[in-house]
Amino acid sequence: KQCVDFLCSTAGLKVYIQNSVKYTSWVSEQTPVIKEQSIVWAEKFEKYGLKFPLNSASIKVYHYWNDKMERDLTNKLDSINDLLVAAEIIQNDSWQVLNRIHSEGEYYGGEILQAITRIDITQSFFE
C-alpha cells in the first residue's frame, strides 16, 4: 500500500478498476447496434438539426424482467449511460447533457421469454 501511495503521489499514477470481461463484451457487442440505429435516426430527423452526439437530452430506461431476480437499477442505468457515451450517442452523462433521467423496471414473467430493456432518448432543440 505504501508503494502504491508513493507512486500515485510522486509519479502521478492513477489506480483504475478494470471492467469485467462480461461488461466489456456487452459494450463491444452493443456499440455497433446502437451506432447503426443512430444513423437511421440522424437521417430521419436531419431536417430538424439532429446530430450525434447529443448535447442536451433526457433519457428514459424501462426494463421488462422475465424473472424476479434482484437487480440494481442504478448500476444498469450507469452501464447504459456509459454505452451511449462510448457509442457517441450522447456527449457525456453529466447533468448538463442528460438533464432528465428516469429508470424503472417491472416483472413480466409468463408474458416474455427474455428480459427486454427499452431506452427512449429525447433531444432538446431549445435551450
Please give a handful of descriptors for the protein shown.
3 strands, 38% helix, 127 residues, alpha+beta, three-stranded mixed β-sheet
Describe how the helices and strands are arranged.
Blueprint: H1 2-11, H2 21-44, E1 57-65, H3 73-86, E2 98-107, E3 116-123
Parallel strand pairs: 1-2
Antiparallel strand pairs: 1-3
Helix pairs in contact: 2-3
Biggest β-sheet: strands ordered side by side in the sheet? 2-1-3
Count of helical regions: 3
**Termini separation (Å)?**
48 Å
Helix and strand element order:
HHEHEE
Shape: globular
- Helical/strand content category: alpha+beta
Mean pLDDT: 90
Task: Kindly state the percentage of residues in helix.
Answer: 25-40%
Q: Major sheet, described briefly?
A: 3 strands, mixed
Query: What's the oligomerization state?
Result: single chain
In the predicted model, the low-confidence regions spanning at least 5 consecutive residues are: none
Q: Strand content of the residues, in percent?
A: 15-25%
Q: Radius of gyration, rounded?
A: 18 Å
Strand runs, count: 3
What does this entry look like structurally?
It is built from three helices and three strands, in the order ααβαββ. With 127 residues, it is of the alpha+beta class. The chain has a three-stranded mixed sheet, covered by helices on one side. α2 (21-44) packs across α3. It is globular. The mean pLDDT is 90.
